[in-house]
Input
Amino acid sequence: MTTGIAERVSKDSHVQHEWSTAEIVALFDLPFNDLLYRAQQVHREHFDPNSVQRSTLLSVKTGGCSEDCGYCSQSARHKTGLERETLLGIGEVVSAARAAKEKGASRFCMGAAWRGPKQKDLEQVAEMIRAVKGLGLETCVTLGMLQEGQAEQLKAAGLDYYNHNLDTAPEFYGSIVTTHSQADRFDTLDKVREAGISVCCGGIVGMGETRSGRASLIAELANMNPPPESVPINNLVPVPGTPLADAPPIDPFEFVRTIACARITMPHSWVRLSAGRQEMSDELQALCFLAGANSIFYGDKLLTTGNPEAGRDEKLFERLGLTAV
Ligand code: SAM
Ligand code: DTB
Ligand code: SF4
Output
């Protein structure tokens, strides 16, 4: 029996967290080599250090989202010049999934720019999940907030993972998003868990948060009971027209430290080196793998922004002796 996450948050003062923010700040503060050594030790206890899981993303409904997330190209409130698209047809989704499988992805993730799905939309997404699952791929969707009963419908269609991020420290969340709260996010995460779907939940760094803010986000993730099976760590992709277009980039070593802290505090989770990889050198990505990242998005596009071409990733895997899960 898992503890309800929303319940844990509303009774926050009574919760005995396994990881305090201060403990995670102390990890961040370690000399870089000590932190990486510790992360690598934890990584090797629980995973093959030379295997990396690969998921391909597809935006099945792009743009026009009612929410005001300050980083997002798809919010209707920001003038990003992104063209809105309606929900893709099943044929397009199946051919993209088939191509992803042929290129060597093991999971196919479908994202929709919604506050949450309407019942009619959910039925169409369920059909997509059934079709993708039928190709022998693991399935993941990210559709926003779920209503009662919707997680069960997704589970019945064959959904393996639901992605719903906490995105940033609780004390910073209101500076980035005002149209929903972290409590709303926890409510959906509880529904996903209760339906028996694996949880994919992480966040974004480089939005102007402090080191303590990054530690506080990691503490929230690590103290979930159980922690998410998959933890995407996104480096902000600054999108012109969004409030965060000019956010100063995070020091790359601080990004690696964030990965290492996630690995140490969530030893059994897949830690995903997510958005922002296109702007990273091969050397920086290698450091992220050394710090315990063992999953990536694979394919030329994320949802609306770029990702390294599959060929570049293939070469990097070969140079580092990595194998795909
Ligand atoms: N609407 C759904 C939601 O908010 O959960 C699903 C789609 S949303 C685009 C999925 C995640 O992508 C966000 O939670 C955020 O972590 C990440 N993301 C969005 N825009 C980003 C950006 N510009 N840079 C880095 N990560 C981003
Ligand atoms: C996640 O944490 N990162 C992915 C996935 N979950 C859905 C999305 C990254 C989006 C980056 C910006 C874009 O392409 O629009
Ligand atoms: Fe973007 Fe999702 Fe926020 Fe909508 S809810 S603006 S798609 S991150």
The beta strands are 51-61, 107-112, 138-142, 161-163, 198-200, 203-205, 230-235, 270-273, 295-297, 323-324.
